[in-house]
Structures are given as C-alpha cells and as structure tokens.
Amino acid sequence: MIVLTNKDEYLVELQDLCKLFGVEDIEVKHKEQQEGNVVKDNFVVKIGDKEGQFDFDYVLDMQMSDLRRKSYQKRMIKNFLYQILSKLLNKNLPWGSLTGVRPTKFVRDLIEYGEMKSHLIAETLIKDYYVSPEKAKLVTMILKNQKCIIKNDNLIDLYVNIPICPTRCLYCSFISNELERVKDKMETYLDCLIKEIDAVKKIISKKTYLVRNIYIGGGTPSVLTPSQLDRLLSNLNFPVSEFTVECGRPDTISAEKLDVLKKHGVTRISINPQTFCEATLKRIGRKHKNSQVFDGYTKALERGFVVNMDIIAGLPGEKFGVFKRTINTLLDLYPNNITVHTLSVKNGALLRKDTSVLDSKDIEKMVNYAQTTLIDKGYKPYYMYRQKNQLCGLENVGFYRDEDICVFNIDSMEETNTVIGVGAGAMSKRVFNIEKRIEREPNVKFIDDYINRIDEMIAKKMEFYK
Prior knowledge:
- The chain is of the alpha/beta class.
- The chain has two domains: 1-91, Double Stranded RNA Binding Domain (2-Layer Sandwich); 155-459, pyruvate-formate lyase- activating enzyme (Alpha-Beta Horseshoe).
- It is 39% helix and 22% strand.
- The chain is built from 16 helices and 17 strands.
- It has helices spanning 11-20, 66-89, 103-112, 121-129, 133-145, 179-182, 186-207, 226-233, 255-263, 278-284, 290-302, 320-333, 363-376, 407-414, 447-452, 454-464; strands at 2-4, 26-35, 38-47, 50-59, 155-162, 164-165, 177-178, 210-218, 242-246, 268-270, 306-313, 337-342, 380-385, 396-400, 418-422, 427-432, 437-442.
C-alpha cells in the first residue's frame, strides 16, 4: 500500500513511479509552508525500515497558470522521490522520473512553455529527469522525425472502432469481443455505426472541419466480411490522403477484402505477426500461421498498400534468440512501418491471472536490439508511447522507412489534432491548440450498450462539438 498525506492530488503519479521501482509498501509524509511567495515543502519517505527525506523550495511565479504551477510542482516532487528511491534501492530506471503515456509530448510541451531548449533535449532529460542517455537520444530522434505536425483546430482525424477479434489474446485488455459471440449482432452494430457516422458528417459540415486522416481500428476490422467492409467504407467518403485499416490478424485477410479496401481509397493496412514463433502464437491465443502472414503481405504489396507490422517484446516463453529471429524475419520482409511493443500486463488481461510465465530478464536486451538493428537498417523512429505495467517500464516505438509515416499515429500520440471517434469504445478528443487544453468524450464500451444507446451517443457527440 502507498500512503501519501496532505498531497492526495499527486498520489497516482507517485504510485506509478513507486510501482516502476517494484515498491508496493511505502509511506510518504508531506508538510507545506508558504512565506510570502516562497513555498517550502518537506517530504519524508519510508520503505520498510529505510527512510529518506527531502526539502523542496520554490518561488511562486504569479504569471504561471495554476495548471502549469501544479504540473511543475508535481515534476519536482517526482524528481526528489526518484532520487530517494534510486538511492535506497540502488536502482535506476531507463525513463528516470518520467511516468505517463507520452514522453515526446511531455518534452514538446516543455519546449513550448520555454522550460526546455530544443537543442538541449537529451541533456535536459538526462540531467533534470534522470532519463538514460539511450532513451534521451531516442526522444530527440523521434521529435526530429515528426515533421508532419500541423496544429490547426479545424483539421481533424476520424477514428472508427470495430471492437471485435477472431479470438482473445492472452495479453489483451481492450474491450474486444470474440467474433463467434457477436456475429449475430454485426449487421445491427454496423447500422448504428453508420448512423453515428451520418451524425458526424453533420458536425463536420457545421464546424467546417477538414478531415485529414481516417483510421479504422479495433479489435480487428478485417473480421468484417467483404460486403460488410464495402457497406462501412461506402459511408466514409472523405477525400483524405491517409486512410488506414487495421488487418492485424493475418488469418482474416483475403484478396477479396483487400480489393474492397483498395476500391474505397484505403492507403495503409496493418498486418501484425506479433512474433514469428508459432509455438508462442499458440501460447498467447493467436491461431494464425507464418504462411498466412507472408501470403497476406504479398497480396497487400501487389495492391500497393503501405504496410505496418507489429511485434511484441517479452511474450510469454520467448527468449532473446527467438525475438532476434522475429526481428530478422521482419527485416527480410522489409515492410514500410514496424512497431515494436513492449509487453504490458494490464489488469483486464487473461495473462494477469498467471504472470509466472513471464521472464523480463531479456526484455531490455530485446528492445535495445530491435531499436539498434532497425535504425542500422535505415528505419527511423517516429512515434512512441508508454503504458502502465509494461515490462521494465519500457516503451512502444513506431519506425518508418522511405517517408512512409503514419500521420494519424503522430496526431493521436502527440495530441495535436481533434479526433472524432465513432463506434463502441471509441474516444472523441477535442484539441484547443490556442487555449492549450483538451476535452474528451467517450462512447460506451460494450456493443450491446452501444446498440441500445446509440441515440444518446449521438446526442452527446452533437453537444460535445457544438
């Protein structure tokens, strides 16, 4: 249990940092005094019979907003807590005191607020936030490769969610339904989805929004039949330059489905092997064969799609040698994009019930090998995010070659553009760049609720974007 006195608003952030150190039983006592415009904080940290403390004084900047002041104070508290934990436990973390999903967005915000110099990103991360030199360099490289960011409140992305998969993976925590259980509801779900898309078209027209990218994710959208895909895509007639559909499960890909995607202007697809070890695939609940990856990829190339492939480091039972073969196989295929995930063991995943099958000993070696090898072979990192409960507190990184960047991934991770989300479990995100704030509006998560409450979802969306 983690106990924090008098500073409950920081509890979650400090809990996240403690968990990265593997600490579950900690007490943090806090006292605060203000003398004029000087705030004096005192913290005492106890881990078992070990104790450390720090004092934190700072001058209130009256021109700084309350939100920025709170953010600054939180960062400083986490920094001091990191120092104490690192000293008491004799341990360093690759991301230092940084928690949260988006390290690159964190840096970008500090630059915009004048708290970090753009030419001193790596040096500042290492010195002020205890980030390892390797991770600091990675952040710098990614920011340099994000050349497609356009901050315009009238430029939006459209996200369509198909929360259905052929089977449930052992590590998955998404609200995703197995196809066999919901196949009798598919047509009704599409009816509701198209109804919501029609409402969104009215919002787009009224607000004079310009749709930049369309992304159909899930789940596995390619579980839809060719006729269902045709019906859905016929209602997404926006003139965009980037149109992505996830076809993550290779066993759901067919020539007929790819022809439907091509007919409707889809430009990018994902084919996600996760690993090229078929014993691992069976272990994690994926039924495809490597031959289906190769066949789907060949068909996609024949039709001119830009292809992304995902893999995961740290899958149950895999050692470094197996992961290395997966990387080398990917390089033989040479897809346009490769995303390297670090396994995250979330509360909603089946894997959470038995983590004894996990071995994080080789995980840093795997991730470092992937990043170094891909960069050596001409791939460039262009977006990154972190998740809670990732092995060793590591990250997910997307790589591209030949300028084939997925702009939607950057827009989404950097939160630079409004995203209108439709479908069960979709999140709409309204970005106000001038005011530097973001508002969110979720749809209900489950298909049955979505079907039964579609009119409510539409009404809430119309109000959200009024």
